[in-house]
Amino acid sequence: MKQNDYNKLFMKENDITAWKTEAERHAQVYQEDCVDVVVTDINWELMREDYEFEDHYISDYMHEYCESKVMYTDDCKQIIEQLDYDVFADDPMTGQRANSIHQAAYLALEGALYGIDIEAKIKSKLNLEDNE
User: Fold this and answer.
1) pLDDT tens-digit map of 67-115
2) Domain locations in the chain as residue ranges
3) CA-to-CA distance for 36 and 3, rounded, in angstroms?
């Protein structure tokens, strides 16, 4: 059986998830979770009359999301393992090497979240324009 025939039988043409690595799948789960958490938090704030949204609030909420995920050592180990993060290498985004397992997990998670244009996704779900 040819590879093309195999793909037609067993995979949908647009099913790109089958080609993703385990780390990419976990990164996507964290991205979706972060978007949901940040959108929910900002929507709660938007219900207050005295709340005025500013773009930098998204990154503040994303920072809070990352901080909440790396509180416990077991969670940090899980994040590092799931995202296949090399704790002994310099971080590609910051150029720094992590000083602790918590910092390594934070850097791994932050790298996974910013692997896509997550702020645009959040603004889209909040029904805000990208340049607001």
Assistant:
1) 999 999 999 999 999 999 999 999 988 899 999 999 999 999 999 999 8
2) 23-125
3) 38
